[in-house]
Write a structure and sequence with these properties.
Keywords: ATP-binding, DNA-binding, Nucleotide-binding, Phosphoprotein, Transcription, Transcription regulation. This is Two-component system response regulator HydG. Pfam families: AAA_lid_14, HTH_8, Response_reg, Sigma54_activat. With 444 residues, the chain is an alpha/beta fold. It has 19 helices and 16 strands. α18 crosses α19. The longest helix has 15 residues. It starts with a strand and ends in a 5-residue tail after the last helix. The relative contact order is 0.09.
Length: 444
């Protein structure tokens, strides 16, 4: 799909030249001749980049930039200016501009700037110099918490250390375990996963260590456990905090001695296994309360990696959402251009209690239900729409006067401070609106 660019400039001749140039490079172009109109356009349609002039008659480029960033903080904006002022450049960058370009434009510089903006706004992955071989190449995100996490993974992966992966449900702890395995010398051998919460204690013991024929009712043949299956590779124990205390002691012995015994057998089997464990529980608190063995905790917790919750890295929401959109669109043989601005706004202001897994499910549902080329608000589940409305509407317990002031302020912001349009939306005359603005101190 063509990338869509919004060009904002009140110099009609310059705008016409830019539209022709960008069109010849394969971009789809929309235009606005004023900052207020640009803000309205961004609220109405989904854009990949905004390219805006600074000096304009009504609302200038810096103010438009601030309003656009307030609405969608992650939409890349490039500023154009004919004034080589350091102050203007600093002002633009502080307001959130990705870069600024001097007029008359250097077309090579413009093209490079657009490509960089599109790369930033696209479904980037955190990759290192190793390219596809990099262990974190499947981990999507470019936020500071994700950069810190991936740096730790690269440092820890080549070692033999046990790693405890901490994080809420749905954050991607198993993906971290896979990255650690792929970055280790053991990557040619299997990574075997066991969900400790999925089986009763006696079945989990058999799953881990194996059993002899006749060891218990239903054991009709000898079976190797997951430790033996993972020999030479990695064993990932998911939801380790759910393991029963009796089995914790047997796991500790296996880790300390590097050997296991099948149920019903007296013979020990040597195993060479690196153990990774994950939990959404506070294991330190579990240790204090006696629910988890202290010696096992320290045996597993040689290195601790914490996976951030999605609400702690909102910068990654557009990247993840686009990634899931492309994946599910391809799987369902559909074609999408992206998300409407309102959908992205709702996603950015939602708390995501289910983390990345919840976002993935929301996007898959939208792909299945959406009939158009853009995912719209109507394609989102009611919980997401309702939560956003409660966050953005007037708060309960307000006086009528406070509610009126908030409604006027919010409407002015939404229409780019266009008072005629605000009066129309609010259903009052322009004179009444001005009077109310003066009363509430909104006319400054």
């Amino acid at each position: 799909m063509k990338a869509r660019i919004l060009v904002v400039d009140d110099d009609r001749a310059h705008m016409t030249m830019l539209v022709a140039m960008l069109g010849s490079w394969g971009y789809e172009v929309d235009t606005a001749d004023d900052g207020a109109m640009a803000v309205t356009r961004v609220r109405e349609r989904a854009y990949d980049v905004v390219l805006t002039d600074v000096r304009m008659a009504e609302v200038d480029g810096i103010e438009a930039l601030r309003r656009i960033k307030s609405y969608n903080p992650y939409l890349p904006v490039l500023i154009m200016t004919a004034y080589s002022s350091v102050d203007v450049a600093v002002q633009a960058l502080k307001a959130g501009a990705l870069d600024y370009l001097h007029k008359p434009l250097d077309f090579n510089e413009l093209r490079t700037g657009l490509e960089r903006a599109l790369e930033q706004g696209g479904a980037q992955r955190v990759v290192g110099a190793g390219g596809a071989a990099d262990p974190v190449s499947e981990m999507i995100g470019d936020s500071p918490p994700m950069r810190e996490l991936t740096a730790m993974i690269r440092a820890v992966a080549p070692s033999e250390a046990s790693v405890l992966i901490l994080g809420e449900s749905g954050t991607g702890k198993e993906l971290v375990a896979k990255a650690l395995h792929e970055g280790s010398p053991r990557k040619a051998r299997p990574m075997v996963t066991v969900n400790c919460a999925a089986l009763a204690e006696n079945l989990l013991e058999s799953e881990l260590f194996g059993h002899e024929k006749g060891a218990y009712t239903g054991a009709q043949r000898q079976r190797d456990g997951r430790f033996v299956q993972a020999d030479g590779g990695t064993l990932f124990l998911d939801e380790i905090g759910e393991m029963a205390p009796g089995l914790q002691a047997k796991l500790l012995r296996a880790l300390q001695q590097g050997e296991v015994q099948r149920l019903g057998s007296d013979r020990s089997i040597r195993v060479d296994v690196r153990v990774l464990a994950a939990t959404n529980r506070d294991l330190e608190a579990e240790v204090r309360d006696g629910g988890f063995r202290e010696d096992l905790y320290y045996r597993l917790n040689v290195i601790a990696l914490r996976v951030p919750a999605l609400r702690e890295r909102p910068e990654d929401i557009p990247l993840l959402a686009r990634h899931f959109l492309h994946r599910f669109a391809e799987r369902n043989r559909k074609s999408y251009r992206g998300f409407s601005p309102r959908v992205m706004d709702l996603m950015l202001h939602y708390d995501w209690p289910g983390n990345v897994r919840e976002l993935e499910n929301v996007v898959e549902r939208a792909v299945i239900l959406s009939p158009g080329e853009f995912v719209t608000e109507n394609d989102l589940p009611a919980t997401l729409r309702g939560s956003a409305k409660s966050d953005t509407g007037p708060s309960g317990g307000q006086s009528l006067e406070d509610a009126e002031r908030e409604a006027i302020a919010r409407t002015l912001e939404q229409v780019g401070n266009n008072k005629s349009e605000a009066a129309r939306v609010l259903g009052v005359t322009r004179v009444t609106l001005r009077s109310k603005m003066k009363k509430f101190g909104l006319d400054s």
